[in-house]
Structure formats: structure tokens, C-alpha cells
What does this fold into?
Amino acid sequence: MPLDFTAIDFETANSSNASACAVGLVRVRAGRVVARTGWLIRPPAGHDAFFDINVGIHGIRPADVARAATWTRQLPALTAFAGTDVLVAHNAGFDMAVLRSSCDATGAEVPEYRYLCSVKVSRKTYDIPSHRLPLAAAAAGHREFAHHDATEDAEACAAIIIDAARRAQATTIGELAAAHALPFGTIGAGRNRAAVAA
It folds into this structure.
């Protein structure tokens, strides 16, 4: 099986993990980016306040999402793009918490995925002073990008995994995880626990 996965990134309106206001998705097949997409999300009532600190980070404002699809309406597009791929995110605990909490807040079923954290992969791969996304992506040879644009962040995350796999001579996402003794996490179907990489 070749190096296939989907990188994902969320931006949130406030400190609630259920306040997703944007998502970016990048599909990788055989170690190459083959598709990328992203869209704005209207957070659910009770989680829809936009904090100044969050707006200052990503630049998304209430008016920008006023006509955006709600979480419940956009979730099928997210799962259709990701399919059955392993999800990869930079600080995956955050992004998986957003996925889980947004579903919980709207009564949607949490989709079932395995996931890998590119921060942990970066720490095993690069000797750099910080493993924040811009620095880790630069170490991977990725171009400059608009940090906190969800799709741009997802593509930077994908670049880290692709480069790390090349350095580890790993041909699959499972081989990369195993090379660094990193577990896959799981989400959905009551399986929010760590799982040993196979």
C-alpha cells in the first residue's frame, strides 16, 4: 500500500472545541498531494461567538460565516473527501477534539477514523528549536504559506508527513508510524483511545 492519507486542519471561532469555523483538507496518494479543498463553517448556536483572539489568528469574522453551511450540513462533505483514510493533523489532539465536539454539540454521529499527529512525527524527524507548523514545514522543504488558513495548514502538514516518510524510507503511513514507535489514535464508534500502529 502506498503513502496515502488525508491531512486536516480546523480553525475555531472561540475557545470551545465545538466552534469550528473553517476546515481544510488535503488528499495524498502515493506520497503526492492530489486534491485539496476547504470551506467556512457556521458554528452551532451556543458555540458561535467569535473571540477577538481567534479572529486575530485566522481573520475569520461572523459575517464571513453567516451564509456558510452548518456543521451538520457540511460533515458529509468532510467524510466524503477523507473516505477511509488515516487523518493527519498538526497537534492532532486539537483537531480531533474539534471533530468530536462539533458532532457532540449538533447531535451528529462522530465519524470513525484513525489519526496520526504530525507534531509527534516532526519531533522524531527534525532537530529544530520549535515544532510549530511553519518551522516544521520549512524543515520539510515546504514553501512559505498563509499560516492559519485551514487548507494551507493542511497542505503544510501533509508536506511534513511526506518528507518524514521519505527520510524514514517508509512507504505507508503505518510504516512511518511504526518507524518512530508512534501510535495511531482513533476517533468515533466509542473508540477515542490510542491504538498501536500496525
